[in-house]
């Protein structure tokens, strides 16, 4: 039986046996560096290091530059440490390219026994409990065993960058059904635009807390459709948690129609490229689905960045439906692309 156990000095002997088995090979997902070996052989230093690994899980812990809050676990089988795994709570620009949300390693002596797959499935459950969905998991392009493990847990390959395969896995993180109040995501608050704010935006007024370039033309188009006070379907400010700035908007094109709702979204240029839109759209979509709705979106054919975000979240391109009883209309050259969300989430660990 595999368990993910918080690092503890009680398993120190087993930990060092696992490290020795790697023979100097990098132990991914461990926060251990071979250069620290002699230092950590001191029991007091090891105890302090284990304590620090635990504190990394706290959002208020001061971490070195480049580090993000993480849930560090040791993979334990029959009371012995056989690997390490870490669930990172956020992505930096570098982690977005290589490293992702989850890093893991299994000791060479016990590989090809299904340990990595089971441990990754448990870690995806831990990510879901943290509200992380989708989850980025990467591996070297030459590591076919790891690529198979990720795929077996529902990973969908987005691309390869500099020899690194980047997979996105839907964790099925829970969400509150959409309502008139804010939607909370890991990296942002999605706050409904008030009637007074909408009037200010249309009048070209600037407000404290609005990032440079906000509102964009698309944001103004969204508030232009408001006819009353905010409700569940109104446009929402994307308020970035890291600095409290409004950096974009997201909302629905009106109330649901036959159980289907369309979303629209966008960020100011300086807020793009760091994974924020993936987090924001994921939170919005999960809240809509928690209310029993199906979600669709349209994009311009050349908007590759938006295509990637939608694909990460399980959206697929679909033909435009016709009127009831009419045949499906084919895509027209130059027309916007329709994307439909595949709402079934594979159970973690399913075949």
Please provide a written account of the structure:
- This protein is an alpha+beta fold.
- Helix content is about 30%, strand content about 25%.
- It has two domains: about 170 residues, 3-Layer(aba) Sandwich (Aminopeptidase), CATH 3.40.630.30; about 160 residues, Gcn5-related N-acetyltransferase (GNAT) (Aminopeptidase), CATH 3.40.630.30.
- It is built from ten helices and 15 strands.
Q: In terms of topology, how is this protein built?
A:
Layout lengths: L1 E4 L6 H11 L14 H4 L2 H13 L14 E8 L2 E9 L4 H5 L4 E5 L8 H15 L5 E6 L3 H9 L3 E6 L2 E6 L13 E2 L3 E5 L2 H8 L14 H8 L11 E5 L5 E7 L7 E8 L8 H15 L3 E6 L4 H9 L2 E4 L18 E5 L10
Parallel strand pairs: 12-13
Antiparallel strand pairs: 1-2, 2-3, 3-4, 5-7, 6-7, 8-9, 9-10, 10-11, 11-12, 13-15, 14-15
Give keywords.
351 residues, alpha+beta, Aminopeptidase, 2 domains, 8-stranded mixed β-sheet, 4-stranded antiparallel β-sheet, 10 helices
What's the short story on this structure?
This protein is 28% helix and 25% strand.
The total of beta strands comes to 15
Which percent band covers the strand fraction?
15-25%
| Main sheet specs | 8 strands, mixed
Report the order of strands and helices: EHHHEEHEHEHEEEEHHEEEHEHEE
The structure class reads alpha+beta
* Average pLDDT over all residues: 91
The strand line-up of the biggest sheet is 8-9-10-11-12-13-15-14
Q: In angstroms, what separates the terminal alpha carbons?
A: 18 Å
Categorize the overall geometry.
Answer: elongated
Low-confidence stretches: 324-330, 344-351
What value does the Rg take, in angstroms? 23 Å
CATH superfamily of the largest domain: Gcn5-related N-acetyltransferase (GNAT)
Instruction: Return the CATH class of the largest domain.
Output: Alpha Beta
Can you give the helix content as a percent range? 25-40%
Integer count of domains: 2
What's the architecture of the largest domain in CATH terms? 3-Layer(aba) Sandwich
Contiguous helical run count:
10
Kindly identify the CATH topology of the largest domain: Aminopeptidase
């Amino acid at each position: 039986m595999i368990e993910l156990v918080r690092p503890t000095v009680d398993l120190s002997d087993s930990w060092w046996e696992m490290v020795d088995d790697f023979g100097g090979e990098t132990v991914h997902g461990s926060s251990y560096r071979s250069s620290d070996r002699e230092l950590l052989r001191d029991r007091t230093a090891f105890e302090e290091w284990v304590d620090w690994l635990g504190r990394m899980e706290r959002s208020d812990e001061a971490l070195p530059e480049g580090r993000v809050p993480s849930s560090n676990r040791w993979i334990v089988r029959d009371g012995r440490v056989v690997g390490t795994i870490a669930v990172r709570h956020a992505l930096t620009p570098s982690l977005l390219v290589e490293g992702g949300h989850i890093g893991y390693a299994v000791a060479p002596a016990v590989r090809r026994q299904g340990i990595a797959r089971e441990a990754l499935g448990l870690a995806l459950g831990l990510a879901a409990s943290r509200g992380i969905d989708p989850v980025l998991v990467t591996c070297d392009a030459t590591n076919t065993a790891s690529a198979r493990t990720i795929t077996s847990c529902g990973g969908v390959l987005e691309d390869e960058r500099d020899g690194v395969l980047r997979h996105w896995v839907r964790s099925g993180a829970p969400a509150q059904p959409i309502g008139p109040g804010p939607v909370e995501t890991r990296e942002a608050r999605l706050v409904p635009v008030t009637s007074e704010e909408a009037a200010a935006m249309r009048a070209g007024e600037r407000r404290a807390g609005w990032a440079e370039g906000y509102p964009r033309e698309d944001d103004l188009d969204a508030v232009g459709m408001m006819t009353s006070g905010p409700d569940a379907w109104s446009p929402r400010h994307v308020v970035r948690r890291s600095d409290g700035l409004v950096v974009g908007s997201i909302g629905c094109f009106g109330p649901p129609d036959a159980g289907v709702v369309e979303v629209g979204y966008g960020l100011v240029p300086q807020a793009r490229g760091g994974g924020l839109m993936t987090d924001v759209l994921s939170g919005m979509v999960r809240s809509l689905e928690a209310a029993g709705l199906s979600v669709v979106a349209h994009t311009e054919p050349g908007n590759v960045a938006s295509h990637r975000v939608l694909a990460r979240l399980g959206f697929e391109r679909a033909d435009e439906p016709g009127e009831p009883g009419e045949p499906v209309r084919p895509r027209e050259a130059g027309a916007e692309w329709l994307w439909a969300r595949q709402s079934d989430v594979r159970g973690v660990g399913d075949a």
